[in-house]
Amino acid sequence: MLEESHFLIRKFEGRDREALRQIMHDTAFMGQSAEIFFQGREVFTDALTLYFTDYEPESSWVAEVNSEIVGCLIGTQDKRKAEAIFKNKIFFSLLWRAFKNGVFWRKKNIIFLLSCLKDALKGNFVAPDFTALYPATLHINVKAGFRGRNIGSGLMRAFLSYLKENNIAGVHLATMSQAGADFFTQESFQLLYTGSRSYFRHILGKDVMLYIYGLKLECF
């Protein structure tokens, strides 16, 4: 637990689940709501958070201001393990639910999925695998109105200390937000990879850059 003068950082607990899910959904599009590009809150939020909250909850943190959850960090010590569990225990259930509820037939989702398919066919989803040197990964989000108060830094410190205590060699992550890129640079992460992505071009009118950052924990 990390207590600052105006916020509290603590381990995620089961009672935080819905607040965490809400934050992750409402900030998923470079700090804005996922509704901008995808309709289907439960399916989207499960895809983004279910592994972290239900299979490895000990690796996640929340930030409180006056007892309100205003930020969260969901993470894993081992990205490869997390991806295997997602594939074997989560993905097909989500896929079935999405089809059953007609999520894939909504216009906004069709456009987004076709854009992703087009990017994939171009080979734009290919990126180097950094898990050998940087096995851990994370997603970090803070509510609008609470950014710029060092809450993100507090969440990051808690997670990095936890990884070091568990002898994890390094951590990496991806962002398409310039603000996110600036934040991770400020937190001493090193830029490992950049690549262009076009699947939000129908919203933004341009391609965006994907940045992958890494930090070896002996440097922390």
How would you explain this protein's 3D organization?
This protein is an alpha+beta fold and about 220 residues long. The chain has one domain: Gcn5-related N-acetyltransferase (GNAT) (Aminopeptidase, 3-Layer(aba) Sandwich), CATH 3.40.630. It is about 40% helix and about 25% strand. It has an eight-stranded mixed β-sheet with strand order 1-2-3-4-5-6-8-7, sandwiched between helices. The radius of gyration is 17 Å and the shape is globular. The mean pLDDT is about 95.
Structure, briefly:
The protein has one domain: 3-Layer(aba) Sandwich (Aminopeptidase), CATH 3.40.630. It contains seven helices and eight strands; from the N terminus they run E-E-H-H-E-E-H-H-E-H-E-H-E-H-E. It has helices spanning 17-26, 41-54, 79-100, 107-121, 151-165, 178-186, 201-204; strands at residues 2-3, 8-11, 61-65, 68-76, 136-142, 170-175, 190-197, 208-216.
Keywords:
8 strands, 7 helices, 220 residues, Aminopeptidase, alpha+beta
